[in-house]
Amino acid sequence: MKPFFAATLLLSVAAAYYVYLPLPNTICEPWKLMILDAVFRSFMHMGDLAHDLGLSHHIHVINYFVTKVEVKGPQSSNTVRVTDTSFAGVPARVFEPTTQVKEHHLKRGVVYFHGGGWAMGSGRMRSYDLLCRNMAEELDAVIVSVDYCLAPEAHFPQQYHDALKAATFFLRPEVLVQYSVDPKRVAISGDSAGGNLAAAVVQQMAADNRTATKFKVQALIYPVLQALDFNTPSYQQNGNIPILYRPVMARFWLEYLNGSYSLVPLLLTNNHTALDLTKVPETVRARVDWMHLLQPAFRKDYRRVSPAHGSAQVVEELPALLDVRAAPLLAEDEVLRAVPPAYIMTCEHDVLRDDGLMYAQRLEEAGVAVTRDHYEDGFHGCMVFSSWPAKFSVGTRSMWNYIQWLKENL
Ligand SMILES: *[C@@H]1O[C@H](CO)[C@@H](O)[C@H](O)[C@H]1NC(C)=O
Ligand SMILES: *[C@@H]1O[C@H](CO)[C@@H](O)[C@H](O)[C@H]1NC(C)=O
Ligand SMILES: *[C@@H]1O[C@H](CO)[C@@H](O)[C@H](O)[C@H]1NC(C)=O
């Protein structure tokens, strides 16, 4: 028996070593998060291994697991009819409440974009499916969960174009009539990379005076909004906090913009926005200037990282770093003034916290009504972790607060 015990002990120590991660005690349910993170990390490691062996792209490996484990068919319930369809050629899952309040009654509508770094995930995943069902029931709303194309097959601006196409299609008068949706009560929303797409699409539609029907509100859940500064206080503070590590976010950006991973170190040192690079004008720098856009409590005593000399290669190779359709935080004030009222969720333990906070500030300065919903114990992605086996109290809390905001404002 002795070798057995020794082996068990050794394995337990190895497992504990793999799982254990020092986390701030202000984060929600740290032990659960460690286990969730270990599962994610093991998928990532398997993906990287298969990638290095030349078997498959690392994103394909992760998406294979996600699809096998998480994606479910369109299952209607007594209260919500669920259909997989496509909007202007873009796949989408539609959730329609079946409870008829009264005849000719018009429902609310929400266009939703899932997260996953423009590369992973699907609106057909269990977690998003559940979120959209709750929204459909609670809001008496038709929810359109858009499955825009993903990297590595697709790169910017393809994801953005899919998002814009699907949103524009849903707002067509005959489509709204078909779904019995009130044209004055449609929201656009999304989390993480989906929040990026929602913000970019709503800016574009606000500026375009040809679309008669506009979104009434936008709800952005821990959105990613800029790639000029990878050293905001939240990037500095949360670089090693699961589930979105700082280098992973840089890789997602490079995958989206079709840049080489060899640029990761340059992005992480802000080399691409060094002070001697005239390709990044002063007016654009001001739009990500957290020394001005963040409250002192969030700035803490972090220092700005802006090297004197950099490599012009990055912005030359990836001009989309300066494109507002990829980085909505870079929009001009004039564009921001035209966008609808916003709900912005941010989490303290998230590298993207300051992307959201800076956007909230810029929108407010442009005169847009903003509801800030900040979670002191939140971490990136928490809102979709509201059901077994990955159920966090901050997940449930943030999801219902988000739905409540829509109930009161849509
Ligand atoms: C619509 O926008 C275009 C370009 O911004 C502008 O030239 C045109 O005058 C606008 N039309 C209306 C009716 O406002
Ligand atoms: C992405 O980059 C590769 C290599 O640099 C290039 O061959 C390909 O055409 C690019 N794809 C798109 C969609 O721009
Ligand atoms: C930025 O990158 C360039 C090119 O790789 C390098 O020569 C330069 O030293 C870097 N600057 C800093 C501050 O790291």
TrEMBL record:
It is a single-pass type II membrane protein. It is found in: Cell membrane; Microsome. Gene3D superfamilies: alpha/beta hydrolase. Its EC number is 3.1.1.71. Residues 110-283, 322-383 form the Alpha/beta hydrolase fold-3 domain. PROSITE patterns: LIPASE_GDXG_SER. Keywords: Cell membrane, Endoplasmic reticulum, Glycoprotein, Hydrolase, Lipid degradation, Lipid metabolism, Membrane, Microsome, Signal-anchor, Transmembrane, Transmembrane helix. It catalyses: cholesteryl (9Z-octadecenoate) + H2O = cholesterol + (9Z)-octadecenoate + H(+); 1-O-hexadecyl-2-acetyl-sn-glycerol + H2O = 1-O-hexadecyl-sn-glycerol + acetate + H(+); a cholesterol ester + H2O = cholesterol + a fatty acid + H(+); a 1-O-alkyl-2-acetyl-sn-glycerol + H2O = a 1-O-alkyl-sn-glycerol + acetate + H(+). GO terms for cellular component: plasma membrane. Pfam families: Abhydrolase_3. It is an enzyme of class 3 (hydrolase). The active site is at S192, D350, H380. GO terms for biological process: lipid catabolic process. One of its GO terms (molecular function) is acetylalkylglycerol acetylhydrolase activity. Belongs to the 'GDXG' lipolytic enzyme family. This is Neutral cholesterol ester hydrolase 1.
